[in-house]
Amino acid sequence: MQPFTTLTGLVAPLDRVNxxxxxxxxxxxxxxxxxxxLREGLxxxxxxxxxGSPDPSFFLNDPRYQGAxxxxxxxxxxxxxxxxxxxxxxxxxxxxxxxxxxxxxxxxNNCFQNGILPVVLKAEEVLVLLKEVIDTExxxxxxxxxxxxxxxxxxxxxxxxxxxxxKDCLYRGLDAIGLTLQHEGAITAYEARRKxxxxxxxxxxxx
Amino acid sequence: xxxxTLFDKIWDSHVVRAEPDGTTLLYIxxxxxxxxxSPQAFEGLRLAGRKPRRPTATLAVPDHxxxxxxxxxxxMDPVSALQIQTLEDNCKHFDISLFNxxxxxxxxxxxxxxxxxxxxxxxxxxxxDSHTSTHGAFGALAFGIGTSEVEHVLATQCxxxxxxxxxxxxxxxxLSDRCSAKDIILAIIGKIGTAGGTGFVIEYTGDAIRSLSMxxxxxxCNMSIEGGARAGLVAPDxxxxxxxxxxxxxPKGKQFEQAVxxxxxxxxxxxxxxxxxxxLQADRIAPQVSWGTSPGMVIGVDEHVPDPRTMSDDKSKHxxxxxxxxxxxxxxxxxxxxxxxxxxxxxxxxxxIEDLRLAASFAKGKKVAKTVHAMVVPGSGLVKQxxxxxxxxxxxxxxxxxxxxxxCSMCLAMNADVLKPGERCASTSNRNFExxxxxxGRTHLVSPAMAVAAAIEGHFVDIRHWQ
Lengths: 207, 467
Hints:
The complex is a heterodimer of chains A (207) and B (467). Chain A contains eight helices and seven strands; from the N terminus they run E-H-H-E-H-E-H-E-H-E-E-E-H-H-H. Chain A is an alpha/beta fold and 207 residues long. Chain A starts with 5 loop residues before the first strand and ends in a 10-residue tail after the last helix. Chain B has a five-stranded parallel beta sheet. In chain B, strands 17-16-15-18-19 form a five-stranded parallel beta sheet. In chain B, strands 11-10-9-12 form a four-stranded parallel beta sheet. The longest helix of chain B is centred in the first third of the chain and has 17 residues, at 78-94. The interface between A and B is large, with 60 and 87 residues.
């Protein structure tokens, strides 16, 4: 996994609440057996008008936001389906950091598995940033994971909270499965104990 | 010993190790796998040279892409076919049990888990699918995960987790006649909102919950995620034990008795506390109909479509305006004036035998309106078989419903069952997101009884007063 340390990048605004993962990437793109190339499905239904032509009012079609690496959005981003295709598509489009007042649990977790930093700021802070992004062409933010800060071009700094374990894994780009496998002894000991307590949990499900 | 909740008991019995900061390595007893969220996980194992730690603890089934028409014709879409073939290849390679498309036991992953006795009280169950919360109906801690975590569980049988908070949702009293578990959960989501449960595991309590059948509890827990909670729980009781007894994958004989002994302790202690509590009165819950593009946008069938002009909160106002525009609805119109084009009875929320029995009882001797196309998709091959043995398929066919093969079908429209732009559907599924059932399609979430009545009348009706 690609580590996340600091990022200074162009910010794209998505001023909507409750953006669900069906909107981030619709079902027809879930038939793939790969993790890559999902950019074409990102916000697929919102990028187009009913006649299929690109909707110029949607941020992904706006030349101003080409090359954006930070997505600024509203409450409960990523709700609904657990599809990891959502962070894969955002990453494929170039987004490494998402900023919102809140994220849905499964999506939030999926971001960390893919080197994406989801930053939670206060709702009023996000509203201030949204206004600045929309009012200022070429608006860039600096996100510093180690210091847990987001800094604006005017040097206003917002601090965010993050779980220390997640932070460490993301900062160093650690292989999560490799980390768990270091506790092989503890897992085996747990299984041995459970086989005595609840033997029915260890029946063979293969028919 | 300190008083603990049902959630605490399950969590505590699955801690492999815990760091001082609370980061926990949690043991996962069982995993369900389907074709959409697993290919990249198996690929990850291969690339890293890893193997499943306990292939015997995993059960796989294709459900999202499968056609609900004649299976002998195969899958027309080559991309869907490849995804299902990939699941079969992976299960063979890694020695994992699979119910393939021609197996009578095939069905929606969250229908077959309970049906087979795979889902047991006190266990931890995961699946790369957000509706894994369904299995909480048995007092199992069950939650959806992403594909990276599917791989993590395959490789280690564990997940790294932080302890979530607990929320009690108590539903007191008795439900009105013809109201169901679906109306309870929609009313709950309407109350707490789609993010109300974020960071929580919900335990459903109260007389109205105790009165629900196992099927009803599954419907209830299924939509916990629509309220933002990754998991929902109902404490196991005699109904749970009776449901499980004799199921193919449930423990047998002496081991079943031993398990029942243990399961009887799976309840919240009287003086245990939750981080939050929400209370609803069952008799105040009307049959629910969603009017917007998020499951929290839901009201009673006897109410009117909300008017954004009366909303003071900017956020709700904009979201409502947007939703009404997408849904093609006018503020203040009665819900019963909404005309529909399609009816879908199915999905992991409402496709079990009890749902179909109830739906058939309302469809019997009636005819689907000429303007409506209606279909019934059973949750599994075994549900279909049972329904046919009871003659329910005949009841549906005679009333003008299509009777299909088992699968996820039009709940998310990954197969050929799709709404056309602008089409309006009364659906027993769980999500009314924009385009969920097809780009431009408009979904209204309802109970099976409400869906049948809407199919017959061509518009929503209050099932409590329907003849």
